[in-house]
Fold each of these.
Amino acid sequence: MKLSFTALAVAAIAGSASAAITFNPPIPFTQFDGDCDEEVVYTGEVVSINKLGYGSFCIADNINTADGSVITYSKVDVFECDTERVYENWHHCTDMTCGECESEYQAYTNWNSMDADNLIGFCFDYTFSMDAVIEKTERKVSTFNEVRQINFSFDANANREDVKLYTEMMDDNSCVANGPPLLQSNPTIDVSGVDISVKEVSGASSLAATVTTLTMAAATIVLLA
């Protein structure tokens, strides 16, 4: 099978903070108003994705309209991963480098949309904030008081390897790669089977050392799981 990306692009992904993939042919997708059996909002194609930095990407799409196909440029920042959701900021940009952009909307997806076994035809679940984007600290945020569900899927004729490259580019270079954060910062540890008998003068420090060792071991198990 002839791959639609060059060896140069692959080398860039592996060893550069800035990497780009151009898909030829582009990856077709469909956007839906709600679930993926609801009304089609629009169809389009992913032309390219460029990693601008950790968690930040520049995406070029062909959007199909009544007047023909229009190319658009978007900057997406995967800025937060909590125990339930992955949050993204989307910006509309005026050029292919995403050098000049304006905030457009904020959205989140659940973790079950992060590990699709079959990427082709899978319905990616996204919830968009309909609230005004406001300035807060160093980034723009929305409150998600009013939301709208807009899902999408890659079309049946999309190249499976290209879809995999596209999704892995975003997942592997953002907080998604670490998975959901631990639900508890101080998990309860069963020490009933551990011998913690120590000399009276050093009991407190020895118990602390034992519990610390078990906590580190538990954390290691979680990380390796």
Amino acid sequence: MGRVSLTLAHNEDRAKERHERTSTMQVRMLDLMEEREKEASEYRLMRESRENEAQLAHRRWLMSLVNPQTIWIILSILLALVGIKVFDVSELIEATSGDSTP
């Protein structure tokens, strides 16, 4: 009987140790998962910030293309394709405005 009680006590001690190791491992796993989730969240925020900056830079670049000089160049090219010179257009504008003196 003494041997059985000694074996049971030993098994109980081993079960307690196993339970403690398992619970410690679970706590470590939870800590690792929380840390990885935090890192993923930080990375996601950083990536979204970079994407927003890239979109803003692209929008600024597009807006920098639209200026009076660029519009005149594009208009001149289109009118040249049609066969009208910009000089003729400016004369036409002066003639139709009524401010020109003969």
Amino acid sequence: MTSHIIRWKNAAQSHWRGWDEQDIVRLSQRLHDPAAYSGGILQITEREYRALPERNRRIAASKDHVTVSPLLIWVEGRGLFAAILKE
């Protein structure tokens, strides 16, 4: 495939899913950044929230032993949610 077709394909997938690879990277960085937490609640964007299940799926697929923990998340523009975090 040509590079233009690949770019169009990636843009269409990103739009359809609501997240892209950079959102997974930023989410992983925020999870380990103490400044991203306020009162024990992680503050993330809606795109990062949509990328959380894919990040968890990748973590579970790459490790034999996965630690699961609950997490409160404040999603920009949506409010407070409870989520499961895999590490």
